[in-house]
Amino acid sequence: MEVYSGRIKIPLIVLLLSAFAISSTRVGFYKTTCPQAEAIVQYVVQSAVRSNKSYASGFLQMFFHDCFVNGCDASILLDGNLSEKTAATNLRLRGFDVIDAAKSMLETVCPGVVSCADILALATRDSVVQIGGTSWAVPTGRRDGLVSLKSEAESNIPGPKASMDDQIKVFASKGLNVKDLVILVGGHTIGTAACSTFIHRLYNYSNTNGPDPTIDQPFLPHLRTLCPLGGEQATRVALDTNSVNTFDTSFFDNIRSGRGVLETDSMLWTDARTQKYAQRFTKTRRSHQSAFNKMFAKAMVKMSKIELKTGNQGEIRRVCNTINTN
Ligand SMILES: *[C@@H]1O[C@H](CO)[C@@H](O)[C@H](O)[C@H]1NC(C)=O
Ligand SMILES: *[C@@H]1O[C@H](CO)[C@@H](O)[C@H](O)[C@H]1NC(C)=O
Ligand SMILES: *[C@@H]1O[C@H](CO)[C@@H](O)[C@H](O)[C@H]1NC(C)=O
């Protein structure tokens, strides 16, 4: 018996260790199975963002919308009449072509090895770096999901009129706290929004016959000119005025002075729960940029681990827009 228990202990420990190893992501997951993986994604993403900087905000949004729905499992990439892509909030996502290009190069070099979920996580990091943002080590080893439902996208992604209570609740349900929320919404330092998402603030806010009183007075005519009453609702407006393609902290200075475009962005300053974090990144504070870079990197890694599929869960798709058929 003594002998057996001694023998059993070792394989048990090995088993436990290997179970741990496959059930989490780690930096350099493809180091031996596909050493070129990260370089290939970086190459494809760099040339895309060089050709059009708006790919960077595209990837940030796509990754956020992937992770918040069924975890970071590339469910956002799946085609289908009722897949996540078809939800109203996802109709304008862009960058699918770039992910497909990276995937097809990877399938040539190391077929069946690199997940679409990891490609998206890496592409997001690389695009932020390409527009002057911070870099971070991306843990890899995610597996691709098999399910993608429009209805789940609709219930898990806060809309542009969501209350702060609702936003905090959704983030908490993903394991993200109020500080993470502020930092991740700070990703609005790049990107644009359609007039339709904030025009309710400009003319008749909450049936007051006037604008949202938290909007800076001189800023109001600027927004009204871009989005006239009865005008084109699809017109895009920079979220971070005067700095739409630069990954900086001016977004926080803008919301501080009532120059937030989305109502949800303005709330980061008007709500005490979030203002205490947001003010850390305004220019009134020392080393605001380096603090933001550091915390953004950390929050992105945290978000990239929402409801992970690893080990034997899911699959490694052969193409990113459809699940494997055998
Ligand atoms: C970049 O892409 C966006 C979104 O597709 C488009 O509106 C814009 O015109 C493009 N910019 C350039 C310089 O091609
Ligand atoms: C989507 O709907 C169309 C029209 O109803 C149908 O022909 C097609 O097969 C559907 N595609 C998928 C992927 O379900
Ligand atoms: C604002 O909205 C309310 C409620 O819909 C409406 O009664 C009022 O006439 C509107 N005011 C203007 C100026 O459109």
Structural notes for this entry:
This protein is globular. It is mainly alpha-helical and 326 residues long. The protein contains 13 helices and four strands. 40% of the residues are buried. Helix 2 crosses helix 5 (116-130), helix 8 (178-185) crosses helix 12 (272-278) and helix 11 packs across helix 12 (272-278). Residues 1-8 and 13-21 have low confidence and may be disordered. One 2-acetamido-2-deoxy-beta-D-glucopyranose binds at residues 204, 207, 209.
Features:
326 residues; mainly alpha; Peroxidase, domain 1; Peroxidase, domain 2; 2 domains; 3% strand; disordered N terminus; binds 2-acetamido-2-deoxy-beta-D-glucopyranose
Write the layout of secondary structure elements.
Layout: H1 2-22, E1 26-27, H2 37-51, H3 54-67, H4 96-109, H5 116-130, E2 139-140, H6 150-156, H7 164-173, H8 178-185, E3 192-194, H9 219-226, E4 236-238, H10 250-256, H11 263-270, H12 272-278, H13 288-303
Antiparallel strand pairs: 1-2, 3-4
Helix pairs in contact: 2-4, 2-5, 3-5, 8-12, 11-12
